[in-house]
Every structure is written in structure tokens, then in C-alpha cells.
Design brief:
Blueprint: H1 3-48, H2 54-66, H3 70-82, H4 86-99, H5 105-110, H6 117-128, H7 133-144, H8 150-162, H9 169-175, H10 181-195, H11 203-213, H12 218-249, H13 257-263, H14 269-281, H15 288-293, H16 300-309, H17 318-325, H18 331-343, H19 350-356, H20 363-373, H21 379-387, H22 393-406, H23 412-418, H24 425-438, H25 448-457, H26 461-474, H27 480-486, H28 492-506, H29 510-522, H30 526-540, H31 547-563, H32 567-578, H33 589-602, H34 605-618, H35 623-639, H36 643-656, H37 663-679, H38 697-700
Helix pairs in contact: 1-2, 1-3, 2-4, 4-6, 6-8, 7-8, 7-9, 8-10, 9-10, 9-11, 12-14, 13-14, 14-16, 16-18, 17-18, 18-20, 19-20, 20-22, 21-22, 22-24, 23-24, 24-26, 25-26, 26-28, 27-28, 29-30, 30-31, 31-32, 32-33, 33-34, 34-35, 35-37, 36-37
Length: 701
């Protein structure tokens, strides 16, 4: 570099240095001026902290905080520590709370012990805004400090409880062990508020809970708190709803719509729902126009209740509103609307209901509705649902029932196919019965064998019972032998249904009853035979001039009951046939003989003796045989050692006939009487009857 160039460079550097020096001097002067200005403003705002105007105090405190200047902050804190003016302190504390300024935490904590309540409240409110981790840790530390004042710890416990800070739980559990009742109470309430649990004032339950939950995050613990809080809110809402409902139940007039209309406007959905149900239950027709509007209520349960109830409201607008409700976002509302449309037999809804058969959520309700509406255009869609193995089971069952209700012969084939599915079988059987009972084309002959198979082989009693009903509705004579066999089923309800189905088919054709009863008797099914004879008697009793035939059937029934060993039922039947209490008792010795056998089986000797007395009177041609039977009955009383009954019975026989039959029976009866009297105590003896001596038989002859 040349000297000339070097000289230029030296000169240029001096110029740059000069310029830098000028700038430094200017900046220093500006900084000094700025410092003077900050100090001035700090002094001004500090003075404003004591203004009588609350807004000026708050503005000054906020300005000092926002200056981010250590002198300004110190001025603020010094004022907070040293002033005795409660208003000034309160304004500063509010500003600290607004800006969540944790730099002031220590001074704020100390003011929790202030003698002035408004200052303590402001300090507590400011603390609740400081949710920084360092601040929470410091607060928990003071809470745990036994040297801190009770008032300070109490205020901190309440503040941390309002902040829902689970970090405070260990310190609060520690406070439960303090000797000061006031602190224990505050700690217990704080724990309850933080956790929304009521574990009591003792530390042990809380310690156990904390051991299980201390590793959970604050968010997880608060989620549980929120759930419990929501549950309590719901409980409170239910309590309020219950009070509303009680008021509605005790209203002066059940038909007065005003209380119910007011309830429909309640903010509580349970109250609105009750109002809907009560309007329908009490049939408050004056409220029906408003009731239709509740199908659009914000609460789905109210909408569902309204939709379900509109079937009972005779209003032309109901079907249209219900069709709209089929598009509701909640399935219970859609199901309720579908069922109501079915009850209203709203044919306008058939196209949409048919489409809903493909919606598994409401397919069942749609099928039920289509069955009640009875439009044959829905048969193909119902058949498709019935045959769908992947379809909703309850919906497929409803489809089977609906096909039976439609009474369309096209459904016979699909229903017979459905018999193969055990989960659908009962509904298919029932539907076939409905179809057979209303089919204009006559009985469904193809259904006989499948239904008989269900009746004779299905292990489920419900299915067998349904098969008997369906066979009865078919009215095919070929079903009769199978129904007779079903009368011996292990389930009484199947037996009863089988007999009813038999009667439905056989009607008053007496020859069928006789034939099948005789066959049952040959198979030793005497109870079945007795039931058939009874049914036959009931059927022909409705016809004039059939008294003798009815008596024959009843006698045959009694004989079958006797053969079955059903002595009680046989006794009642024979009593009706003997007709002893009327003026025209039976004179048939065979009936007396059969009833005597039944009474012997029942070991009812007193009744047997009365029967034999009637037999001697009404069938005297076998009088001595009746006396012989009487002696046998008396001998059985002797074996039973019923002496008092013996004496009374023989006295009654003496009154009836002093000769007591022939000499053999007389002598034996008198001996029995004498022995019985000798065994009885005098006070138990009935008075001895004086009977005339019988004349010698030769003289009589």
C-alpha cells in the first residue's frame, strides 16, 4: 500500500471513531433522560396508589406491574407491605390477580394473614390466579408449614380447593391430624371440594385414596372430579324435577291444562316429559294441540314420549308430525314414531316404514307398524327381512308376526321356511296360525306336516304350544290324532292348548270324540280320554234334546277318571250323575257301586255309609248287598278304632232299619256296637237308642 493510500485510510478511521463517539454521547444522554423519566413516572404512579378513586388506584398498580422495571415493582411491593390503607392494598392485589403476576407471590401470601377481611379476600383471589408450577409448589409448602398461622393455612386450603389442585392433597391430609378443629374442618372440606368425594374427617381413608391416585396426572384426577360433579348436578336436577312432578300430581283439577302447559315450558326435561305423559294419561284434550309440538322438543326423551303418545291423540296433524319424526337423530324417537304410526294405521307412512326395514336400529318398530297398518304392499319387504340371516333377530321376529297380521297367502312359503330357524320358529308358527285363521283361500294344507313336526319333536314348550294353536286354526281333521297325543305333553299349558285346538276342529261331532277317547283309553291314557269326554259333553250340551248323550259322556268321563286313579275328580263326577240332593236321584245300582268303590279308595267311610243308605233307598233290589257293604265299612271303622263314630253310625242304621239287614249283619253290628260302647268313657257315650225288637222272620213271612 502506498503512503498516500495509507494516509487516506488513517484519516478515514479517525472519522469513523468520531462518529461513534458522538452516538455514544447522544445515547447516554437519552438513557439518562429515560431513567429520569421512569423514576418520575414510578413516583407519580406510586402516589396514585393512594388516590380516593378506585379506578386510578387500579390503573396505577397495573402501570407499575407492566413497566417490567425492578424499581417500579419494588415500589409497588413496598407499598403493599407497608401501607395500612386497605383500599390501596385491595387495588394492588386485584391488579396482581388480573395479570397473574407470580413475582408478588410472597407479599400476597403474607396478606392472607391480614386483619382486614377485604384484604384477605383480595389476596386469596389473587392467589387463585397463580397456577404456575413454581407458585403452586410454594403455596403447598406454606400450607404444610406448621409455623404458618392457622388463618393463613386455612385461607390457602380454601384457595387451593377452589383451584382444584390435587398437589395440595398430601398437605391437606396432614392438616387432618392437627389439634385445631377449625383447621381439620377446613382441610376436610377442601379435600371434598378438590376430589368431589366424601371420605370423612379422618386421615386414613384419604391416605388410602391418595396412594391409589397420586401417580395420576392432574388432568386425570380432574376428569374424575368433573364426572362426580356432573353426577351431583344430575342428582340435583332430578330432585328439582321430582319437586315439580309432586306439584303437578297434587294439582287441584286433573283436567286443568294450565299447570301442564306451564310444565311443558320448563327448563327441566324430566318435568316436560312428565307433563306429556300426564296429558295423555289424564286425557287433557285441551292440551292436545300443544302436545303435537313437543315432538320437536330439544330433549330426545320428551320427543320419544310425545311420539309414543300421539297415537292416542285424534288429530289430523299427528301422522304428518310422526312421519317427520321418523327422521329424528335419536333412535328411540324414531321407534316411538313408527309404533304410533302403526297404531294410527297411517297408510301414508307405509313407503317410509318399508324403507326403514333395512335400518337395523328401527327395523323392528317399522315391521310392527307395518303389521298393524295391514297394507299388502309391504309383504315383499317383510319377507326379505324375515329371510335375511344377517338381519336383526328381533326385527326378523317382528317381520314374521307382521306377515301373519297381513293375512296374505303369499307369506305362507317364507313362514314355512322360517320354521327351520329355532330362533324364529315360535313367531313363524304363530304367524302361520294367524294366516290360516284368516286366509280366504281355505286352510293351508302344506303347513300341516311342518306344524305337526314342531308339535311332536320341538324341545321348547313355547313352540309346541304355538303349534297346537296354529293346528287348531288350520281346522284339518288329520291334525286331530296328533293333538290327542299332545294332550299327554309334559307341560300343562301345551295339554290345555291341544285340547282347545281339538275342540276347535272337531266341533260337535260326537263320533270323533268317542273314537279318539276310546283310542286313548286303549293306550292307558285315561286322563286324556276323560278330557275328551268332558269336551264332548260341553259341546253337545249346547244343543237341545241331548241330555241323555251328555249323561253318557259324563259317565264315560267318570269311568276314565276312576281308571286313572283320579279319585277326587271321579267322586265329583259320580256325585253329579247320582244327583242325590235333588228330588230325582239316580236308581242305577251300577252308579252307586262305582261311587262306593271311589269312596273306599278315598277311605271316606262316613261318606260311604251315607251313600249306601241312599242306595238301599233308591236301588232296593240289591238291598242286602248294600247291607253287606255297610258291614264292611263298619268293620273298617273298627280297624281304625273309631269307637265314637262306630256307635253313632250303628245308631243311625237302627233308625233306618231296626232289623239291620239279615240276621248275620244284625248280630255282627250289635256286637260291634256293644264292644265300642264298652271301650268309651261314660261321658263320651251318646245316649243309647231304644229300638223295638224285630219280629221273628217266620211270623213276618
Amino acid at each position: 500500500m502506498s503512503s498516500q493510500q495509507f494516509g487516506f485510510a488513517q484519516k478515514g478511521d479517525r472519522w469513523i471513531l468520531l462518529r461513534v463517539l458522538v452516538f455514544v454521547v447522544i445515547f447516554a444522554a437519552w438513557g439518562f433522560a429515560a431513567t429520569v423519566d421512569v423514576d418520575k413516572r414510578t413516583a407519580e404512579w406510586k402516589a396514585m396508589l393512594f388516590s380516593k378513586d378506585a379506578q386510578q388506584r387500579s390503573s396505577a398498580a397495573t402501570s407499575l406491574l407492566l413497566m417490567k422495571s425492578d424499581p417500579a415493582l419494588q415500589a409497588l411491593l413496598e407499598t403493599l407491605r407497608t401501607t395500612d390503607d386497605a383500599d390501596t392494598r385491595t387495588s394492588i392485589l386485584k391488579a396482581i390477580g388480573v395479570h397473574r403476576d407470580a413475582r408478588c407471590l410472597e407479599e400476597v401470601i403474607q396478606l392472607l394473614d391480614s386483619p382486614t377481611e377485604s384484604v384477605r379476600q383480595a389476596a386469596s383471589a389473587a392467589i387463585e390466579t397463580m397456577d404456575q408450577k413454581e407458585a403452586i409448589n410454594r403455596l403447598v409448602g406454606v400450607l404444610s408449614d406448621p409455623e404458618a398461622s392457622a388463618r393463613m393455612r386455612s385461607s390457602l386450603a380454601e384457595a387451593l380447593a377452589r383451584m382444584r389442585r390435587p398437589e395440595a392433597v398430601p398437605a391437606l391430609i396432614g392438616m387432618l391430624e392437627t389439634e385445631k378443629p377449625s383447621l381439620r374442618n377446613v382441610a376436610s372440606e377442601a379435600l371434598r371440594r378438590i376430589t368431589m368425594l366424601s371420605l370423612g374427617p379422618k386421615p386414613e381413608p384419604w391416605t388410602q385414596w391418595w396412594k391409589k391416585n397420586q401417580d395420576r396426572s392432574r388432568e386425570e384426577i380432574l376428569e374424575g372430579v368433573i364426572r362426580r360433579q356432573d353426577a351431583r348436578i344430575e342428582e340435583l336436577a332430578r330432585t328439582t324435577e321430582d319437586l315439580w312432578v309432586e306439584r303437578l300430581k297434587t294439582r287441584n283439577s286433573l283436567q286443568d291444562p294450565k299447570p301442564l302447559l306451564a310444565a311443558l315450558k320448563s327448563d327441566l326435561p324430566g318435568v316436560r316429559r312428565y307433563a306429556v305423559e300426564e296429558i295423555l294419561r289424564a286425557k287433557v284434550e285441551a292440551a292436545y294441540p300443544v302436545l303435537i309440538e313437543t315432538v320437536r322438543d330439544p330433549d330426545p326423551k320428551v320427543r320419544a314420549a310425545s311420539a309414543m303418545g300421539l297415537a292416542r291423540v285424534n288429530d289430523a296433524k299427528s301422522p304428518a308430525e310422526l312421519i317427520l319424526a321418523l327422521e329424528d337423530v335419536k333412535d328411540p324417537v324414531r321407534m316411538a314414531a313408527a309404533r304410533s304410526l302403526g297404531q294410527l294405521k297411517a297408510k301414508l307412512a307405509v313407503p317410509r316404514l318399508t324403507q326403514l326395514l333395512q335400518d337395523q336400529a328401527v327395523a323392528r318398530a317399522a315391521a310392527e307398524a307395518l303389521g298393524k297398518i295391514g297394507d299388502p304392499s309391504s309383504v315383499p319387504a317383510l319377507e326379505a327381512l324375515l329371510a335375511d340371516p344377517d338381519g336383526n333377530l328381533q326385527a326378523r321376529r317382528a317381520a314374521a308376526t307382521a306377515l301373519g297380521q297381513l293375512h296374505d297367502s303369499r307369506a305362507a312359503g317364507p313362514l314355512l321356511e322360517a320354521l327351520q330357524d329355532p330362533q324364529i320358529r315360535w313367531f313363524a308358527v304363530d304367524a302361520l296360525g294367524e294366516l290360516a285363521g284368516h286366509n280366504e283361500d281355505g286352510p293351508l294344507g302344506k303347513a300341516l306336516d311342518p306344524l305337526v313336526k314342531v308339535l311332536t319333536t320341538d324341545p321348547t314348550a313355547d313352540n309346541r304350544e304355538a303349534a297346537t294353536v296354529a293346528l287348531g286354526k288350520l281346522k284339518i281333521d288329520k291334525a286331530l290324532p296328533h293333538l290327542v297325543l299332545a294332550m299327554s305333553d309334559s307341560e300343562s299349558r301345551v295339554r290345555e292348548r291341544a285340547l282347545s285346538a281339538y275342540v276347535r276342529i272337531a266341533g260337535d261331532r260326537l263320533e270323533l270324540y268317542r273314537q279318539h277317547a276310546a283310542e286313548a283309553a286303549e293306550r292307558k291314557q285315561h286322563e286324556v280320554a276323560a278330557a275328551l269326554y268332558q269336551a264332548a259333553a260341553n259341546q253337545i250340551a249346547k244343543q237341545p234334546g241331548q241330555a241323555e248323550a251328555v249323561a253318557q259322556m259324563r259317565r264315560a268321563r267318570a269311568e276314565q277318571l276312576q281308571a286313572a286313579g283320579n279319585w277326587g275328580a271321579a267322586r265329583g263326577e259320580y256325585e253329579l250323575l247320582l244327583n242325590l240332593d235333588s228330588g230325582a236321584p239316580s236308581k242305577d245300582p251300577a252308579l252307586y257301586r262305582s261311587q262306593a268303590e271311589v269312596l273306599r279308595r278315598l277311605k271316606d267311610e262316613p261318606a260311604l255309609l251315607r251313600l249306601l243308605a241312599a242306595a238301599r233307598k233308591n236301588a232296593p233290589e240289591q238291598k242286602q248287598e248294600w247291607w253287606n257293604d255297610t258291614l264292611s265299612a263298619i268293620e273298617r271303622l273298627v280297624s281304625a278304632k273309631q269307637d265314637e263314630a262306630l256307635v253313632k253310625a250303628i245308631d243311625a242304621l237302627k233308625k233306618e232299619d231296626p232289623e239291620l239287614g239279615d240276621e248275620k249283619t244284625r248280630e255282627r253290628l250289635l256286637v260291634i256296637e256293644k264292644e265300642a260302647r264298652s271301650r268309651l268313657k261314660p261321658e263320651a257315650l251318646p245316649p243309647k237308642e231304644t229300638t223295638p225288637e224285630p219280629k221273628p222272620r217266620a211270623a213276618v213271612e
